[in-house]
Amino acid sequence: MCPRNGGLRVYAGLNVVWGTDTLVIPDIGVGENAKGLSLRPEQLALVVEVTSPSTRRRDLTAKRDLYRDWEVPMIIVDRSRMPSIIVEGELPGWVGDLTI
Question: Going from the N-terminus, what domains does the chain have, and what CATH number goes with each?
């Protein structure tokens, strides 16, 4: 469970903006209170991506590389290989067990 007193919120459809030409939208983002629906990478505590046939390649390559470079922990639910959960980075302690 996301800590309520930590100032973090869970967002769906959050814009993660870096510089003037990079924008990604994770399926779920956990981060500081956003202005509108935009955060910078350093404001994120965790992102979750759920693959689909149209997003799988981007989720597993470009987005994964960006979150890794930004040092943002990431959970990928790869629906083409169910059950398959990929974890990138060190997850916050409040995430709990991801065992399926």
Answer: 4-95 (3.90.1570.10)
